[in-house]
Amino acid sequence: MTIEVTTQLPATKEAVWQALTDSAQMRQWYFDNIPDFKPEVGFTTEFPVQSEERTFTHQWRVTKVVPQQELRYRWSYREYPGESEVVFRLMPDDNGTRLVLRFAGLNTFPSDIPEFTEEACRGGWEYFLQGQLPAYLVG
Fold first, then answer.
1. What pLDDT shows up at residue 1?
2. In terms of residue numbers, what domain contains 18?
């Protein structure tokens, strides 16, 4: 199963790229406890996220970097089986930058965990990419 979310951002590709790849900026709109992030193939990071009584230790490994165009990483959790791939693609448009996110592999995670439903996953990406990120970019 693949989830796709597209958003128009009122910022340059350079500014959007920095927001997606600079750990200090990522902590402002994405996850506030990301310890570090580098847009380098092979880079890994790990950090816990609480959702009610469940912990989801995010484990990311960067798999592809095309500066200001494409970022990919593998996304898994220490506590649960499954692995997904996140792809961010940036394209210039008349009003700034169009960002297309593809999240593939949701079906590899346990179906009995509410956070792994399509509705919850899509809602999370829309919250980050259509709410938090634009608000951060316009300051």
1. 86
2. 2-138
How many domains does the structure of the chain reveal?
1
CATH code for the domain of 67: 3.30.530.20
The CA distance from 84 to 11, in Å, is 28
Contacts of 103 by beta carbon, 8 Å cutoff, 6+ apart: 2, 3, 4, 5, 75, 84, 85, 86, 87, 121, 125
Strands of 2-9's sheet in order across: 2-9, 96-104, 80-93, 70-77, 54-66, 44-51
pLDDT for the residue 97? 98
pLDDT in tens, 35-67: 999 999 999 999 999 998 999 999 999 999 999
pLDDT tens digit string along 94-127?
889 999 999 999 999 999 999 999 999 999 999 9
Strands (E), 1-139: 2-9, 44-51, 54-66, 70-77, 80-93, 96-104
CA distance 29 to 19: 8
